[in-house]
Amino acid sequence: MEKKFKIIGKNHNLRIGRLRTKNGENDTPFFMPDATRGFVKFLSKDDLKKIGMGPMVVNTYHLYLQPGTELIKQSGGIHRFMNWPKPLLSDSGGYQIFSLIHKNPKMGKITDEKAIFKSSLDGRMHELTPEKSIQIQFDLGVDMMVVLDDVPPVTYSEAKTKDAVKRTIRWAKRCKVEYEKQIKSRNIKNKERPLIFGVIQGGKNEKLRRYCAEELVKLDFDGYGFGARHVDEHGNLMEDMVRETAEMIPEDKLRFALGVGTPSDIVKFSELGWDMFDCVIPTREGRHGRLFLWKRDDLEEGFYETININNKIYQEDFSPIDPNCDCELCQNHTRAYLRHLFVSKDPLGMRLAAVHNLKFYLDLMQKLRNNSQL
To answer: How many of the other CB atoms lie within 10 Å of CB of 240?
Structure first.
């Protein structure tokens, strides 16, 4: 079977790779914004296209609940439904379901067979098995999908984390079986085949992560993710765990840092060998008036800063948001004007700020790729 990913350059542990999917090629490392429900809040296809957006992430849990898998299938799949021609990755829905249950046990329960959960929309009960998660993701028609895993909180005891790891491995096996079954029943050729990712769990325990990685590698996924949070209970980056987990993944496989993260964390992860990133930070922070600005051209510590445009200090500031940025906001409007939009609660301000932050992230990824020796 032809490989869909190959490494084409390196700078120490920072990897430049080329990924081929049915909806286009992308060089790694790359960042994916969360188009959770089939859209990026306040942004149009043209907004995303103008800044050069590539792959994005949709959420299996949310799309299953609303508008529903059947409606998306009728439309011709998620790409057609949201009119996005570039690659899409769907997560399994596990993180959302398990977060829901861990925060409030009345919202459902986790068994070895499946997750049972109450809809956050209407309170109705639903069940999600590993098989069903894969079936939904095939129905969405994505380019990349993620297995259903058990996501333990970082505060879990070693015994509970061990149980979560064992369940993650069992479910990964079931997901892979269902994946092969769907490939065969839908008669999908290799060129159209979606990539599938396993997720390495284990919390802060290196031995459990290694055990999880070894078992998942046996299943030969296209890539592997860093499962659960990458920070400890005090909010500190677990750098050793991040480095060691990357080393557990075969060199020719994609390494997906789920939910990462801040610009500094993305730089650190890239330097430790991770290839793919996704998070809500640039768009969510933008909608609240927090913007990322370049301070230096290199990516050494302190290469960026953030400002909160809501602060009164910007009321009479007629300078551009960031003179080093060529996005729509920075080329056309001042800090004073953007603050006026936020104070007036006009959605245009949130849109422009989200566009700017996404452009910052895309420029960051380009700088990382340029730092590798091709």
So the answer is: 11
Is the Cα torsion angle 305, 289, 40, 246 positive or negative in sign? positive
Residue with tokens 């297995």: 147
CA angle, 320 then 311 then 291, to 5°? 50
Model confidence band, residue 374 (pLDDT cutoffs 50, 70, 90): very low
> What's the CA gap between 70 and 7, in Å, rounded?
38
Q: Are residues 256 and 296 in the same domain?
A: no
In a domain, 365, yes or no: no
Tokens of 365: 């990824």
Domain range enclosing 351 = 290-359
Q: Closest Cα partner for 148 from 136, 161, 158, 160?
A: 136
Task: Provide the phi-psi class of 86: left if phi over 0, else alpha when psi is between -120 and 50, else beta.
Answer: beta
Question: Is 52 within the bounds of a domain?
Answer: yes
The active-site residue out of 47, 143, 278, 363 is: 278
Write out the two tokens for 359: 């452009």
Nearest to 289 by CA among 240, 340, 245: 340
149: nearest Cα among 217, 202, 195, 108:
202
> Active-site residue 317, yes or no?
no
Last residue of a domain, one of 278, 302, 334: 278
| SS3 of residue 343 by DSSP | helix
From the candidates 34, 91, 139, 143, which is the catalytic residue?
Answer: 91
pLDDT bin (cut points 50, 70, 90) of residue 62 is very high
What is the CATH number for 43? 3.20.20.105
Is residue 90 a contact partner of residue 145, using CB atoms and an 8 Å limit? yes
In a domain, 370, yes or no: no
Dihedral sign from CA coordinates of 359, 360, 365, 366: positive
Residue 237 in this model has a pLDDT that exceeds 90: no
The answer to whether the beta carbons of residues 146 and 197 sit under 8 Å apart is yes
Known catalytic residue: 220?
no
